[in-house]
Amino acid sequence: MLWLNKITSGIKTLLKEHLISIVVFLVGMILAGIETDYIENLFIDLPVKAFQDELLFGTCFCLFLTPGILLVESHFKNKKQKIIHVLELLISFAVSGFYSWAETIGNKLENTPYADYEQYLTRAAIVYLILAVACTVYFLYKKSGETFEGYFYKAFVGVIRAVAIYIIMAIGILLIMHIFESLFFTTRLELLPEFVLMGIVGFPAGIYGISHVEEGDSGFSKVLFCYVNTFMLAAAFLVVYAYVIQIILTWTFPSNEAFSIMAGLFIAGLYVWTAAQGVTEGKLLVTCRIMPLLFAPLIIVQSMCLYMRVSEYGFTFSRYGGLFLILFEVFYVLYYLIRLLMKKGIGSALLIMIPAMIICFFAIPRINVYSVVTASQKKVVENFIARVEAKDDTAYDFSEKAESSYRELKMRSSIEGKKYVEALNVKYSDDVLNDLFDEYRYREEVQSKPYEYYKTEVRHAFVTIELSGYRYISPFYTTIDLSTDDLTKIDTSKIPARAKYNGAMVLGEADLSELISKLRVMDVAGAQNTELQNLIVDPIPVENGLLYLEDIKFEVDKKDESVVNKITIDGYCVYN
Asked: Are 126 and 172 in contact (CB under 8 A)?
């Protein structure tokens, strides 16, 4: 019965130290389960739907309040810090309350001055969560009396153990529910039981894992970090270094995938070599200590990859994140080297460096990602507009980049980007900008071709297909280009309709010569797209069926309009 006494003692200790955070988190999980199962998924007609906003508010409030309470509990025994405890709780209640308000009532205030507050509150909530988690881990680490590497290793093992316990019990709950529903009646519950289990088992087990690391060691975990993970990381280093040697020998720029691969290698390596140093000894420990220094040359390759993308298209959310990752890697390697020369471990610096970088990325004015991306992308748009207004023929060189930047500013929907787009649309509406992008993009295509041509494009937004008398319907897509295909002439009287997902299968050949001629005449005469659409409404006969055109694009030679240099068609084919 020793195991039962051990579990009982652990539960008592856990409840004594972290009772309030566990209860608050459990309430949040229950509310989340009710809100999900009873409103979003299942019983949408029940009276509980009237309390949807209240349930969502309660869920957000409890879940965001939990890290703040956990922080206080992590150093609550220090009675001299009562004022600090009160201040931490006040900040937690304020941030959790305002953020929960923004996620519920604030969502209904679109197109009002209050709508922007939600983004500011979200950024404040991110900062609060990062600081609360980092400070909690710091206090638990100091309380453990371990080196940081030793604490990191044992805490990680404790969290993995908690995850394993939760997964096993979650599977068991699913099986029990299945048996119950098979024998009695359908409960139609999906996530509520799993959420409650997370509050009762998963979260407490995770907290116990990071707060009582004296039980975080085991033979299996030692093998995992001493040999398996370290060997796999070393193998990954060999592959990446082989790629770097290839770059040097061939003197070619690195591929775009290189950055993400090396970023993943650093993130994985950070946890592997940190945890491994907390448990390894002898030559293996020396190897683990050298690994962070081996990563230093790879930062140069990452910088090359990022520079190539930013110089072409400016900063985006992911590219600016890449810049911060590179800065973090540089700071980390330099600090690690200094500590290594001093014959000391990394210490708790990671608990300062990581939160500091994330807070700068999301929240610090002028250097946060939203401000930088807006400033970077709007320069591209303004450069294009200035050239258009000056009637500069080089404007077409910037049309594609400007369109990409404009989409980035609109789609990211940050406050900074939104305000810039609104100010820009006062002078240039969204439709006007799209027309400019299209006009200059086509001019760019003209300049990039080895021949001069006129282009016609017709898109049919809605196609009605008559199936009577035919057995099959298949989408088709065909593109023929004299500049890339091994052809001397495109015969428009025999254009193959190729099956969209099997290009080797030809559904039929269509005579498009007359249609192309009519479309070109009307296009030259200045017909609108709606007028051109009328010419492709009727189906085109092919062997054993009909083609319904959804889109047709073609280019005729500027010197001889009877010569078609490129044609693309797609749509649907009905046939027997």
From this structure: no
The three-class DSSP label of residue 516 is helix
Tell me the CB-side half-sphere exposure of residue 394, using CA atoms within 13 A: 3
Which contacts of 417-421 are long-range, i.e. CB under 8 A and separated by 24 or more positions?
Answer: 417/370, 417/373, 417/374, 417/377, 418/116, 420/374, 420/378
Three-state DSSP string of 58-95: HHHHHHHHHHHHHHHHHCCCCHHHHHHHHHHHHHHHHH
Q: How confident is the model at residue 29 (pLDDT cuts 50, 70, 90)?
A: very high
Contact 551, 532 (CB under 8 A): no
CB 518 within 8 A of CB 528: no
Most confident listed range (187-196, 463-472, 516-525): 516-525
Tell me the pLDDT tens digit for each residue of 506-542. Answer: 888 999 999 988 888 888 887 777 788 888 888 899 9
pLDDT band at 89 (very low <50, low <70, confident <90, very high): very high
- Assign 177 to helix, strand or coil: helix
How many other β-carbons are positioned within 10 Å of the β-carbon of residue 83?
8
pLDDT(106) > 70: no
Query: Other CB atoms closer than 10 Å to residue 510's CB: what's the count?
Result: 25
User: What is the tens place of the pLDDT at every residue in 358-371?
Assistant: 999 988 888 888 88
> Residue written as tokens 């649309």?
425
Rg (CA), the chain: 31
**CA distances for 13 relative to 138, 215, 250, 401, angstroms:** 20, 14, 62, 60
How many whole angstroms from its chain centre is CA 238? 28
